[in-house]
Amino acid sequence: MILLIYPPVAKPCEMPPGPARLAGALEHHNVPHKVVDFNVAGLHYLLLQPVAGTDTWTRRAVFRLQENLAAMRNRRIYQNIDRYKRAVMDINRVLHRLDKSDNSVVSLANYQDDHLLPVRSADLIKASETFENNPFYSFFKTRLTSLLERHGPDIVGFSLNYLSQAVCTFAMIGFLRKISPEIKIIVGGGLVTTWLANPAWKNPFGGLVDDFVAGAGEKALLETAGVIEGEKFYTPDYSDFEHKQYLSPGMILPYSASAGCYWNRCGFCPEKAEGNQYCPVPTDRVIEDLGLLIKHNSPCLLHLLDNAISPALLKRLAADPPGVGWYGFARISRCLADPDFCCDLKRAGCVMLKLGLESGDSGVLEGMQKGIDLNLVATVLRNLKKAGIATYVYLLFGTVFETLDSARNTLAFTAKHAGEIGFLNLAIFNLPAYGPDVETLATEDFYTGDLSLYRSFVHPRGWHRNLVRQFLDREFKHHPAIASILKNDPVVFTSNHAPFFAELFREAG
Predict the structure, then answer these.
(1) Does position 509 have pLDDT exceeding 50, yes or no?
(2) In this structure, is the dihedral angle defined by the CA atoms of residues 376, 287, 306 and 352, taken in order, positive or negative?
(3) How many other C-beta atoms lie within 10 A of the C-beta of residue 355?
(4) Are 474 and 409 in contact (CB under 8 A)?
(5) CA angle (188 as vertex; 491, 147 as ends), nearest 5
(6) CA pair distance 509, 493, nearest whole angstrom
(7) For residue 184, what are the β-bridge partners?
(8) What is the pLDDT of residues 481-497, one digit of tens each?
(9) SS3 category, 156
(10) Is 230 or 382 the better-scoring residue by pLDDT?
(11) Which residue intervals of the chain bear CATH 3.40.50.280?
C-alpha cells in the first residue's frame, strides 16, 4: 500500500496536481493507495491554535477568522478587491501570530525559519532530527500515526515542489524514520527534479530517503510497487481530496497537458538548463481527460498548468470547449494575432491568459531568444482585450541583456498598453545555478547552501540587483498607469485567484 503526501507550505487554493497524477496511475493498475494534502489540512489546523498578541489587528483577525475563511469560498468577495485583501491579510495575521517557541514564520504561501534553511542539506537533516520543534508537529504526529495504523503503507511518497515545503517535508521524514523505520520513503516533485538535474548533485540524505525521483514519477512509483508500466499517460485522480477545504469559490481543477516547454529556447531558462524534454499529451487524450474530470468533479475553474499551452491545444480547446472557464500560460504567438481566434477562445471559456513578455525592449527580447517582437505583443494584447480575455503579464528585470535604458523602455511599453493589461507580475532575474549560460559569467554563491538553486553574478552591463530594485521601487511602480494595474493583483494568491477578478477589472477598463 502506498501513502502519498503533499506537505506544507504552498498556496491552499487548489488541489495539488502531482499526487493526483500519481494516484491516477496507481488507480489504473489497481495499486492500493491513499493521497493526503497535509498542506491545506495543516494550515487549517494551525489557524485553530492559540495566537500571541493582543493588538487590534490580531484581535480582529482572530474574531473574524471563520467569517474570512467562509468568504474566501464565496464568489461575492471576489467582487471587491479591497474586501478580499483584508480577508487574506487577516488570515495571514493569525498564522503569523501563532504562539510557538521556534523561529519559524508561517503564512498562506510560505514557511521560513531563521535557523533551518531549505538550501542547506545539513539544515534539512537537522529538521528531520528535531521534528518536534516544527510548528506542524502536533498535526502531522496525529495524522501520520492514524494513517499508518489504518492503512499500513509499505511506501510513503512526498511531493516536494517548493523551497517553502522542504523543512516540513524533512521534519515528517524524520518522524516517520523514528516510528516506522521499515517504511520505504520516496521523494519527488519539482524541487527534487531541480536538485537531481544539477551536475554537482551528491545525495546528502542517505538513511533518510530511500529514493529521489526526477520528473514525472508515475513510472518509478509503479515499478517500486512491482508494476511494469503499460501506458504513458494517466488521467489524474482527485477523489481523495477534500474539495471544500481549499480557499477558492469552488473547486479549481489543475491539469497538465504537457511536460517541458514546446519553445524551449529562451536564454537562462531553468527548463532548458535542467534538460527537461517537451512531452505533450495528445490533444484527443486531453479533451477526453478534461471531459471525465469536469464531469466527476464539477469545478468552477480549469487551471492548465503547462509552461506554455501549445497552439495546437489552444485550437483544439477553441473547437471543443471544456464547458468551464479556464486559464493558463500561453506564448505570445501568431495564433493570438488573429482577433477572430481570440474571440473563439473567449467563447470556449478562456477567462485569462498568463503571458511571459519579460521585457518591453526589443534588444532584450532578441538576446533572450523569446521569438517575439513588440509589434506582435501589441497586437496580441489588443486582440485579447477586445475579445474579453484578461491578461496576466510577467516582466523580468535584471537579465544580462538589460540596462537602465532598456528597463525604461519596458516601463514605457507597459504604460502605453496599460489599458490592455489586467495584472502584472514583476520579478528580478535569478541566475540558475548551472547550465551553459552560467559559464559565460563571473559568479559566486547566491545563498551559502549546497542546495541553492541560483548563483549571484557580475552583471556585464553594470545593471546589478540593487540598482534594479531601486528602479522598480522608485520609478517603475510609481508610474500612475502601472500603479493602477498593480493594485489589481490578489495578495498572496496572485495569478491563482486573478481569474475570479478578471471580469471586474475588464469592466473597469
Answers:
(1) no
(2) positive
(3) 24
(4) no
(5) 85
(6) 22
(7) 155
(8) 999 999 999 999 999 99
(9) strand
(10) 382
(11) 2-49+100-224
- Only one residue has cell 535569478, namely 430
Every domain of the chain with CATH number 3.80.30.20 lies at 249-508
The answer for 245, left when phi > 0, alpha when psi is -120 to 50, beta otherwise, is: alpha
In the three-class reduction of DSSP (H, G, I as helix; E, B as strand; rest coil), residue 50 is classed as coil
Give percent helix, percent strand, percent coil of the chain, each to the nearest 5.
Answer: 45, 15, 40
Q: Cα–Cα distance between 123 and 383 in angstroms, integer?
A: 50
DSSP state of 251: -
Confidence check: pLDDT of 101 > 70: no
Quick one: how many helices (H) and strands (E) in the chain?
20, 18
Instruction: Give me the CATH topology for the region 2-49+100-224.
Output: Rossmann fold (3.40.50)
CA dist., res. 255 & res. 299, Å (int): 12
pLDDT at residue 500 greater than cutoff 70: yes
Element (H, E) at 219: helix 218-224
Mean pLDDT for the stretch of residues 7-28: 97
User: 249-508 adopts what CATH topology?
Assistant: pyruvate-formate lyase- activating enzyme (3.80.30)
Query: What is the model's pLDDT at position 506?
Result: 56
Share of the chain above pLDDT 90, in %: 85
Preceding peptide of 167 cis, ω within 30°: no
For the record, the C-alpha cell of 484 comes out as 493602477
